[in-house]
Specification:
Strand content: under 5%
Structural class: mainly alpha
Order of helices and strands: HHHHHHH
Shape: globular
Number of helices: 7
Number of strands: 0
């Protein structure tokens, strides 16, 4: 996941650098638009994400080490995995539009590390490996996705309103 963190950090740090060339008011409006967009998307149960995973054919073509590396790289890219809510997009947009490139890189590495640790711990503890696993109830299931997205939408729109009211 370190390689993917470097890839994402470089891309987002470059965006952050470019955004710093814009006036602060323009960056704030862009953030407000993104917050409302992601909030509405979550309210409508349409969280933006790519409907794809690591190709299944890799399981037969690659050995366990290579498959693990491909999977870890893919997970760390953020954009290539399915999302339950828009919170990751909200966080990344916020840091890119409000912070210097170094802070963006730190944010990417911290979120990648936390995500990687979470995946490793869940894998080691064998939580929810298959749908029929006795611990499946521990996973986020369809009954919790709508409330999670609704809450994410409230957070996004609420943050947009808070920022808009505080803007002079």
């Amino acid at each position: 996941m370190i390689a993917s963190a470097v890839t994402v950090a470089l891309a987002l740090a470059a965006l952050s650098f470019l955004s710093l060339l814009l006036p602060e008011a323009v960056r704030l409006v862009a953030l407000l638009v993104l917050l409302v967009f992601f909030g509405v998307a979550d309210f409508l149960n349409r969280t933006p994400h790519v409907w794809r995973q690591v190709p299944q054919r890799f399981a037969g073509q690659l050995g366990p080490r290579q498959l693990g590396l491909v999977w870890a790289y893919d997970l760390g890219l953020y954009v290539t995995t399915q999302k339950t809510t828009s919170l990751i997009w909200i966080g990344l947009a916020g840091v890119v539009l409000t912070q210097p490139p170094a802070a963006v890189a730190v944010a990417v590495f911290v979120t990648n590390a936390l995500f990687g640790i979470g995946v490793a711990l869940l894998t080691l503890h064998r939580r929810g490996l298959v749908l029929t696993h006795p611990r499946f109830f521990d996973r986020i299931n369809g009954n919790l996705i709508r409330p999670a997205r609704f809450t994410s939408g409230l957070v996004a729109v609420g943050l947009a309103l808070y920022l808009a009211m505080g803007w002079q």
